[in-house]
Amino acid sequence: MSLFASLARDPETSSDPASSRRSFLRGATTALAAAGLGPLAAGQSPTKPNAQDAVHLPELHADTEAPDKTPGPFEAPSQRTGFAVVGLGTLSLNQILPAFAKSKYCRVAALVSGDRDKSRKIAAQYGIPDRSLYDYKTYDQLAQNPDVQAIYIVLPNSLHAEFVVRGAKAGKHILCEKPMATSVKDCERMIAACKAANVKLMIAYRQQYEPMNRQIIKMVKEGKLGTVKSFIATNGQNQGDPAQWRQKLALAGGGCLPDVGIYCFNAARFLSGEEPSEVVAFTTQPKSDPRFTEVEESCGFTLHFPSGLIATCSTGYGIHRSQFLRIEGEKAWAELSPAFAYTGIKLKTNRTEDGHNVLSEPSIEEKDQFALEMDHMAQCVQQNLQPHTPGEEGLHDQRITDAIYESARTGRSVKIAPPPQPTRGPDPQES
Ligand code: NDP
What architecture (CATH level 2) is domain 208-367? Predict the structure, then answer.
């Protein structure tokens, strides 16, 4: 019997759930130790995740009810990829750290923060030892931490480049938040640093791992929409404090466009499977509003694709939260409303069947997008795979961002050269 099969069987056979769980854990520790699977050394990857490690619970309901979902597989801590989370702000505390509890192949192993008091409090919550707390000066010492195989960069945009390059030099794989950086030059040096260090670089485009977005990709690929002709999207919100880094050009690289507008044109690219060749854009920047002295308030842009597809997008920092997309083909359309949200995304499709107009709302299980995205990164590390959203995907979005700004500045349409090679790696595995 395999190691994982022997670990998995105890809870099912014991009549006392509490004692079976205890003996399961004892058995797991003993079996892992016997197999020589102690804490991982730096650069050492955990073995491939094994589905036999799933935990099975007894069914509580009658056959007339939908079956409870079987949780797991639950990899042992030593089998999970250890992440250092860099920057303990809104996204890290509200979304990323809680998502580790839902991930199958990841664990949070270290924190990097400029605020020691905050990082101690958060570390206590997640069981992270004091020796695995760093600040931005001691960050490079992650190189000597064998508990950490990957680093998740969750800093203001213009700081991504420095911390990706230093993290790669420390020999760790990198997951970096969007937008990848604030210039093409920085994106290129991030890619080069990760290549030179032979570590993986993935950009955290969570929507590309989200089940309803993946369903639309499938529909487009299978020709369910027919030829895709049009894409419409909006992503906006009303910003508060003018002093926050998002309103500072040097830290943010722009206003609503690189922050939330990026979701619209990234979706136009990955849902259609095409790359835009030209853009026309407008921005507005009411400098009398203290929030917009350095960055634009709103941006509207139209992307033209070689097939004839036209994507019309708008983004704003002065509107009530609005998140929507629709991709329209000659036979059908699919829309997400809201789109781009962390939860509550709803898919709707419309087509004609037997002469009738059919509007449907497919029921697709909602999953934590951050857990999915981190699990994909862990699978890439553990199985030596190419990330689905590597640095090249972020680099091309930066080129598009630059073209949008150039068009808005010059009042002319701007050509966008196609990427030299496909910017996405193999599709993520079902999780
Ligand atoms: P926050 O401002 O809430 O947090 C950023 C954190 O970075 C701070 O709390 C601070 O952490 C650290 N930091 C280090 N240097 C600075 C500095 N000079 N100014 C401000 N903060 C600094 O930002 P978010 O968490 O909202 O965003 C972080 C990144 O995540 C951005 O790149 C953003 O685009 C991306 N993001 C992605 C989302 C997604 O859905 N994928 C959603 C939201 C954001 P500490 O105090 O620990 O040092």
Answer: 2-Layer Sandwich (3.30)
